[in-house]
Structures are given as structure tokens and as C-alpha cells.
Specification:
With 357 residues, the chain is α+β, with helices and mostly antiparallel strands. It has two domains: 25-37 and 46-98, Phosphorylase Kinase, domain 1, CATH 3.30.200.20; 103-296 and 334-355, Transferase(Phosphotransferase) domain 1 (Transferase(Phosphotransferase), domain 1, Orthogonal Bundle). The chain is 36% helix and 15% strand. The protein contains twelve helices and ten strands. Strands 1-2-3-4-6-5 form a six-stranded antiparallel β-sheet. It has a two-stranded antiparallel sheet with strand order 7-10. It has a two-stranded antiparallel sheet with strand order 8-9. It is globular.
Length: 357
């Protein structure tokens, strides 16, 4: 907890002329600022309140609030609603929609094992979120399991993308892309950072997608990536060791004992040029085809939903979904984006698949 938020929460806090209250129950921490449980005192609805010390080295919450307001103008799925934001003398606050656990916590609750079906359903939704963010001309720059949260109540089937404190505009409204640069500091989380990010190259859309690939492979491999747990005396040394291991690990060995589609995805993403627009529909199609091949149906039976249902059944609580919501009827994965059509297999695809065999 930052000094200012600690001081702020020593007494009851009301925001927006008494509409919202803030408790001392900490829900988590973002790239910048801490997040606390709050309440809408008019509806008794739970909210999340993010608080940042204005005197911090690089205050970002004002930027994040503006970006979130911009992103959620038309209430897209998978992005938390922004209710209120304020800037005081010593701190900045942002009141947003209360969400559930993040994927890292859910992974732990599932004994660090996600089924292939759950991983593929995560892949489909997370790709949609990243594509939407990119369609608004921003990249995230810190894609990791902790920044994907599930919805609550009737939104239990939705996966949300959060924490935009490190996000950056990569092109303007006229489609002019930012310039290629080198000698940049690593931004984001080293475990999931792209190799180009490690090398100090300016990030673009390809880097978010490479990070997402590492997240999905992390789940598919039971929470173990080859560059985890490396010993080092300093952060700089650790980053260097992670880069060395990441760069020397072939995609074939990284994706050993998991479906080849994960390798196909990562090979395509790593082939993208700095300014190149990714074919998101193609990437979703890779995982959708595997989903179909395995005979899965889209019933939103994530592993954590099934675990909660089993717990409820064992205590006589019935078999409802998260927070008492009955699981919806099975559906088919919809790979259409309304903008691009999934491409058919090409010679490039065959080359990519050869790299993974």
C-alpha cells in the first residue's frame, strides 16, 4: 500500500459527493496504484477503487482513467466499466466495475492445471480483447495472467482485460504508426515479455500477441516455462538470463507435449513486422479448429466453474455456475470479427507448421 492510500484509508472515505465508499479491504495491485473494495451507497453494489499516490515516481492513473473511458464508450464486452475518477491534492482515485479473480489466482485454485478446453476458451476471449484494444490504436504492453479477470454474476462467462497503466498509443487516427526505435527499457513482465521487448526494441501489436502466446503456453504446460526460476543477483542479471533462455529455446521444444497449434500461433506472431497488422481472425481460427477437432462445445464450463459446481454439490448447494448463475446453453465459437475473414491454408502456413515439427 502506498503511503498516501494508507493515510487516506485511516478514516472512512466517501467519493463523488457520498455516492461511493472505500473500504480497507485490498483487492490487488496494478502496474500503478492499489485496488480496494468499495460500495455504491445508492445501489449497495460492490465496486473496485484504484488509488495512486500523486507523488509517485511516474503517476499513471489519470492516463489509465482517460484511456478506460475512451475504450468503454460503447460498453464493449470484456472491459471494466468506469464509474468515477477524481484528482485530489495527494492522490488520484478511479472507481470501476468490481470483477472476480484473475487467471493466475484461478490457475492456483485449479491446482495449477487447466484443461485444454479451458485454455482454448481463454485463448478465444483474450484474443478478442487484445484485438479490440488494438482497434482503438493502443497496445497493452503488460499481457500476463494477472491482467485477465473473470466477470461476476451474469457475466461469469466473460474474461476481462485490465490494468492499462503501461498502455501506449501505437498509431494515430490517420493510421500513422509510431517509429521503430531501439535501446528502450523492458516494459511489462519479464516472464511473458516478447524477445524484441527484451532486446530494447519499441513495442507494437506483435509484442502483445507474443506475450499472449507465452501466457497460453504457460497454461498448456502446467504453469512451467523454461525461463522460470532462474537464479540471479540483480534484476538486470535476471532479465539477461531470461532473455538468453527464451532466445535459445526453440519453438519445437517450448511446445513439446502440447498441441502443435500453440507453436503455429507463436511462429506466425514472431514473423510479424514492426508495423504489420496481425490477422486476428486467423489466429483465433488456429485455436477454434483445435477446439472443434477435440469435439468441445462452448458451454462456458471453465475448470474453475466446474470446481465451484462440484463444491456446491458436495455441500448440497446444487449445480449452478459462478455466483449462483446457471450455466448457459452450449454455443459455437464465433470466429468472425466483422472485419476480417479467417484465411485459408497457404504456403506460409505450411512453412510455419514445418517449424513446429
Amino acid at each position: 500500500m502506498s503511503a498516501s492510500s494508507e493515510e487516506l484509508l485511516k478514516k472512512p472515505v466517501l467519493l463523488a459527493d457520498g455516492r461511493y465508499s472505500v473500504t480497507t479491504q485490498k483487492l490487488g495491485s496494478g502496474a500503478f496504484g492499489d485496488i480496494y473494495l468499495g460500495y455504491n451507497l445508492q445501489t449497495n453494489e460492490e465496486v473496485a477503487v484504484k488509488i495512486e499516490n500523486r507523488n509517485s515516481l511516474n503517476p499513471q492513473l489519470s492516463f489509465e482513467a482517460r484511456l478506460l473511458k475512451y475504450l468503454t464508450t460503447n460498453k464493449p464486452e470484456g472491459f471494466p466499466r468506469l464509474f468515477y475518477t477524481s484528482e485530489e491534492k495527494d492522490y488520484i482515485t478511479m472507481v470501476i466495475e468490481r470483477l472476480g479473480d484473475n487467471l493466475e489466482n484461478l490457475f492456483e485454485k485449479c491446482n495449477r492445471k487447466f484443461s485444454l478446453k479451458t485454455t482454448l476458451m481463454i485463448a478465444d476471449q483474450s484474443l478478442k480483447r487484445v484485438e479490440f484494444l488494438h482497434s482503438k490504436n493502443f497496445i497493452h504492453r503488460d499481457i500476463k495472467p494477472d491482467n485477465f479477470l473473470i466477470g461476476l454474476g451474469k457475466k461469469f462467462q466473460s474474461i476481462y482485460l485490465i490494468d492499462f497503466g503501461l498502455s501506449k498509443k501505437f498509431q494515430d487516427s490517420n493510421g500513422i504508426h509510431i517509429s521503430y526505435k531501439e535501446n528502450k527499457q523492458l516494459t511489462g513482465t519479464a516472464r511473458y515479455a516478447s524477445i524484441n521487448n527484451h532486446l530494447g526494441i519499441e513495442q507494437s501489436r506483435r509484442d502483445d500477441l507474443e506475450s499472449l502466446g507465452y501466457v497460453l503456453i504457460y497454461f498448456a504446460r502446467g504453469g512451467q516455462l523454461p525461463w522460470q526460476g532462474l537464479k540471479a543477483n540483480t534484476k538486470s542479471e535476471k532479465y539477461s538470463k531470461i532473455l538468453e533462455k527464451k532466445a535459445s529455446t526453440t519453438l519445437k521444444s517450448l511446445c513439446e507435449n502440447i498441441p502443435v497449434e500453440f507453436c503455429t500461433y507463436l511462429t506466425y506472431v514472431k514473423s510479424l513486422k514492426f508495423e504489420e497488422k496481425p490477422d486476428y481472425a486467423y489466429l483465433r481460427k488456429i485455436f477454434y479448429t483445435l477446439f472443434q477437432k477435440e469435439g468441445y462445445i462452448l458451454d462456458y464450463q471453465f475448470d474453475w466453474v466446474k470446481m465451484q459446481q462440484q463444491d456446491a454439490s458436495s455441500t448440497g448447494g446444487g449445480s449452478s455456475g459462478l455466483n449462483g448463475v446457471v450455466v448457459s446453453q452450449p454455443q459455437k465459437l464465433n470466429t468472425s470479427t466483422g472485419q476480417q475473414q479467417p484465411k485459408t491454408t497457404t504456403a506460409t502456413d505450411k512453412i510455419i507448421n514445418l517449424d513446429c515439427q
